[in-house]
Amino acid sequence: MRLVQTLTLCLALSLSLAAPSSHQEGHAKKGEKDKPHADGHKHESHHGAKLDRCAGMEFDAVAVNEEGVPYFFKGDHLFKGFHGKAELSNQTFAELDDHHHLGHVDAAFRMHSEDSPEHHDHQFFFLDHKVFSYYKHKLEKGYPKDISEVFPGIPDHLDAAVECPRPDCTNDTVVFFRGDEIYHFDMKTKKVDEKEFKSMPNCTGAFRYRGHYYCFHGHQFSKFDPITGEVHGKYPKESRDYFMKCSHFGEKSTADHIEREQCSRVHLDAITSDDDGSVYAFRGHHFLSITGDKFHSDTIESAFKELHSEVDAVFSYEGHLYMIKDKQVFVYKVGEPHTHLEGYPKPLKEVLGIEGPVHAAFVCADKHIAHVIKGQTIYDVDLKVTPRKPVKEGSITQFKRIDAAMCGPKGVTVVIGNHYYIYDSPMIMMRGKIMPEQHKVSQELFGCDH
Ligand SMILES: *[C@@H]1O[C@H](CO)[C@@H](O)[C@H](O)[C@H]1NC(C)=O
Ligand SMILES: *[C@@H]1O[C@H](CO)[C@@H](O)[C@H](O)[C@H]1NC(C)=O
Ligand SMILES: *[C@@H]1O[C@H](CO)[C@@H](O)[C@H](O)[C@H]1NC(C)=O
């Protein structure tokens, strides 16, 4: 036990020491290089705003919360979702601190079990030999408890844990990881099966996300089969490419860029299809374009220099891309290369008559109406009329927020996270009572093969 702890400690220290150098090589963001690195102060390595997941980081634990938002734990901090800064874990889970100083979380998972309502949607955290169970953001009565009491047969000082509900596993199961030891714990019978996951690296964190199982190790991850531990496809992959919104780092081949953008689970910022049926999808600092069956990916900076990155909404109109970012509109004539129109960017208020920020916008072919989505409200803007007069068209009731939308021959495509939905028309999108079929962005829209 002590050996494992010492090893873990050494690993954590060596990683925290290695982080700043990889930061400088791979991720030369303006200004950040000038920040002092407190390398000598090992105890501070887990603290403060210095934690930058885009610098490459090994997580202690990963789990989704009740709303399905991924939480990445590192030391006494926590990253919520795919971008943003670290917060202290004790701000969200105060009681984790009550019993002993919260240095780190070893493992975490969110139980999913329709059969046992007493556990369904509970979040479990493992710290040394203790387990904490949260339900609806509150620590449950009687917790923390010893791991051996709640999960008999499961060792202390875990590295990772992930739920495997039916039908993924035969019975509702939790998969626990410690070093290269794997345990399947049956939630109902409490039976423990020791497994060998031969082709899997040792995981420091694991989670189930949108029906797939991911093991995090170093700053990479592998997708695995929770029953056999088999890893299919080209793994490991870089976590920053798929689960974090980070700007360009390291040199990669064009094929790698395309695959990364096709297969990323990070939400899109904007999507549009032009009159010729080409699709442009924007995410963070990158975009992916699809013309026929040809894929192209590059940085936004290289093809849309004036815009730099991180666009809010894009729509196509008469051979131009209207790109909305904060309170401005950039307009590019589509071509090789795309050319920015003179006089732009212009204020959004002037171009569409709407105050930013907006969340999505689209124009359907042969129409001259821009449908602009802001929160749950859709505005119509007639692009043939100046000055522009937005008219409130209606509200989206089926979703709280949408990430991106486009209109094509099939209708309106609405993108939320890694899923999309198709409506025959904007009208049906607002009035529809029946939830349309859910599709996967990475696989069905972008043709990712895994
Ligand atoms: C949260 O953790 C930080 C650092 O570990 C500590 O300084 C702070 O007192 C804790 N806050 C609470 C409310 O426990
Ligand atoms: C599933 O649970 C049943 C009893 O509820 C048990 O007989 C069976 O062995 C379990 N299957 C696995 C794969 O653990
Ligand atoms: C995985 O964990 C085992 C201990 O359980 C250890 O012996 C082995 O070296 C670890 N492998 C790697 C690659 O760290």
TrEMBL record:
Disulfide bonds join C54-C246, C164-C169, C203-C215, C364-C407. It is found in: Secreted. GO terms for cellular component: extracellular space. Heme binds at H296. Residues 1-18 form the signal peptide. Glycans are attached at N202. GO terms for molecular function: heme transmembrane transporter activity; metal ion binding. GO terms for biological process: intracellular iron ion homeostasis. Coiled coil: none annotated. Hemopexin repeats lie at residues 102-154, 155-199, 200-246, 265-307, 308-355. Residues 21-49 are annotated as: Disordered. Residues 24-49 have a biased composition (Basic and acidic residues). The keyword Disulfide bond applies. CDD domains: HX. It comes from the Eukaryota. Keywords: Disulfide bond, Glycoprotein, Heme, Iron, Metal-binding, Repeat, Secreted, Signal, Transport. Binds heme and transports it to the liver for breakdown and iron recovery, after which the free hemopexin returns to the circulation. Belongs to the hemopexin family. This is Hemopexin.
